[in-house]
Amino acid sequence: MKRITITDIAKRAGVSKGTVSAVINGKNTVRAETRNLVTSVMKEMNFRPKGMARNLKQKNTDKSIGLIVRDLMNPFFTSVAIGVKDYANQKGYDVFITSSENDHEREVKFSQLFSNKDIKGAIISPIVEGSSEIEHLFKLKMINYPFVLLEDVRGIQANVVSIDNVKAIKIAVQYLIDNGHTKIVHFAGDPISSHSLERIEGFRKAFSECSLSCTHEMIVTIGSIYETAFINAIQFFKNRSRDQHPTAIVCFNDQQALAVLDAAIQFDLQAPDDISITGNEDIAFARLFPVPLTTIHAPLNEFGMKAAEILIRNIESPTLLPVENLVLDANFIIRKSTKQLNS
Amino acid sequence: MKRITITDIAKRAGVSKGTVSAVINGKNTVRAETRNLVTSVMKEMNFRPKGMARNLKQKNTDKSIGLIVRDLMNPFFTSVAIGVKDYANQKGYDVFITSSENDHEREVKFSQLFSNKDIKGAIISPIVEGSSEIEHLFKLKMINYPFVLLEDVRGIQANVVSIDNVKAIKIAVQYLIDNGHTKIVHFAGDPISSHSLERIEGFRKAFSECSLSCTHEMIVTIGSIYETAFINAIQFFKNRSRDQHPTAIVCFNDQQALAVLDAAIQFDLQAPDDISITGNEDIAFARLFPVPLTTIHAPLNEFGMKAAEILIRNIESPTLLPVENLVLDANFIIRKSTKQLNS
DNA sequence: TATACTCTTTGAACCGTTTCAATAAAATAA
DNA sequence: TTATTTTATTGAAACGGTTCAAAGAGTATA
């Protein structure tokens, strides 16, 4: 089935391609009668002009960048997206957001689509699970396509903006230790997620830097979304008697922390009196939780803005720029879900 | 400043365009030496092949649709986006999301960009404030570009999927009246928003259908986002003595309801005992509020899916299809923020 | 040495529009 | 009636790549 082109329309209407083009573009040089004829033929044949061909000849001055997140629903990415958008808009760029839904195939496809669609550059939150495939990134480099990663990917030299997850968790744990907690547990996110692994590393580091030991049982993987985390947290509490419970739990993220808060209540453990709980990421609702959440505030907006800044700098540079690597610090926000342990 | 093209690279490297093209596309027919030469020239000149030109000749089989929301942060749109994405993916389409940020210019620009970038169709949540400008929609019709609106726009015949806001609020008010409430107030959203106006209409209708009168003071505009709603709600409660307070408040949306809940507490009004409060939209967090929120559940996922369904049907149809107009019902979910009034 | 292959590279044709100088037709002026 | 202007239409060139038959250069084979 062949595509219908402007030539088909011209032929059928008995006019030239130029005239059809003029009608499409609403030029006022075409006679009403001709316009009607052409329009009706277009309708009849359901003709849709091919945008790419139009753009080829036209000056195509549009400025746009693409963003590939891993999960649309995740407030983390929403906040980052806002940052990207704000900076980009300010510089006159529009943002196209897509979600890989943690599917590597999609990430690959999108990175291609962006350049095919003349989107000038991309900010990519890459899926990194162990041995990540990165040939699509090499392809982008080959065509000098500007892009910024939101996470470090081994094996490729590229612009990266990331948040120091290790440090962030370390500070939270430090705080708990300083406040007399020793029975601290870390609820990890998803086993394959690099975010999760980094946070586990931060948890471990905090202990080793205080010359305390961090045992295997102190890290429990319960998942990153509310529903699964809730179920697993219930299981966790059920499996031990009251005096076996930790005095503090360091959660992977805020949604998980909420689930833990809710699960704990079912076992009559009220934060912060019976148990201290910290979140991570400081999503918008964190301060509105039943117990306002002590959490780690990642500068998500700034995160997005910085990525956009680097990207646009690269887009606008006539020469190839050296890669940048920027690590942002998170900061700890003390609300009501943690307290000093009475000794 | 002229664009660097493949011809420039070919000339500089002393090879033909065809060879450069082969290098770009990683064809293995190119001698290593030649490949290196070309690659280095490409780097040196920071050459970025124009995607649209590439796609013109290639078979370009990519299937993608665009979504224009009005506000990225709004959970309402996030849920709709998920629905769109789910249906689209299932049909093999990718989704590009953009946000007009309630700026009409942007909406216009995006609707153009989509077709220019060979995105096959668009789902648009239009900005409708009074006399809305719609020539950009007419332009889309002119080129038979498939699109679906997420709200009715006067003056144009187009595919529309919408939610029956009027009916939704009516049911909520009905419920409150049936449960003995008479001193009911509606907190409206933003004055210009058509959603807000429809909800006000629903509020009015519920009263008139019960042959009760709905006075002007029963509708108070306090805004749709948490922060402003909170401030205005505080003001509202401050302005009247305890026995003047309504026994029930019908809120514009869930975020606003949360703000009202929080503000009410400050005046020692606890839902549902001292005051009944209903939300709208049933965002994910609504059931996790301090008091689980009685609200109106809009089938947002289905909303998005239906829009995607209609859009894709139009994209894939060889002939121009008649427009569709689909209205979805919302349903009322009773949780803990409302109760029967003791008479 | 001639012949057949293989490996590289070339360059013209093509993708589907827009653009614009040239032209044709119609209207107006002389 | 002819010259001039205005209005509408044409068609070839251009946009920036890809494609692929054909040619050229080496190499191995007979």
Chart the SSEs and their pairings.
Two copies of one chain form a homodimer.
Chain A: H1 6-13, H2 17-24, H3 32-45, H4 51-57, E1 64-69, H5 75-90, E2 94-99, H6 104-116, E3 122-124, H7 135-142, E4 147-149, E5 159-163, H8 165-178, E6 184-188, H9 194-209, E7 219-221, H10 226-238, E8 248-251, H11 254-266, E9 276-278, E10 295-297, H12 300-316, E11 325-328, E12 331-333
Helix pairs in contact in A: 1-2, 1-3, 5-12, 8-9, 10-11
Chain B binds a DNA duplex (30 and 30 nucleotides) through residues 3, 5-7, 15-22, 24-25, 29-31, 34, 49-58, 60.
What features would you describe in this structure?
The structure is a homodimer of 343-residue chains. Chain A has 343 residues and is of the alpha/beta class. Chain A has three domains: 6-57, lambda repressor-like DNA-binding domains (434 Repressor (Amino-terminal Domain), Orthogonal Bundle); 64-163 and 300-328, Rossmann fold (3-Layer(aba) Sandwich); 165-298, Response regulator (Rossmann fold), CATH 3.40.50.2300. Chain A contains twelve helices and twelve strands. Chain A has a six-stranded parallel β-sheet, sandwiched between helices. Chain A has a four-stranded parallel β-sheet with strand order 7-6-8-9, with helices on both faces. A two-stranded antiparallel sheet of chain A has the order 10-12. In chain A, β1, α5 and β2 (94-99) form a beta-alpha-beta unit. In chain A, α1 crosses α3 and α5 crosses α12 (300-316). The mean pLDDT of chain A is 92. The interface between A and B is large, with 59 and 59 residues. Chain B binds a DNA duplex (30 and 30 nucleotides) through residues 3, 5-7, 15-22, 24-25, 29-31, 34, 49-58, 60.
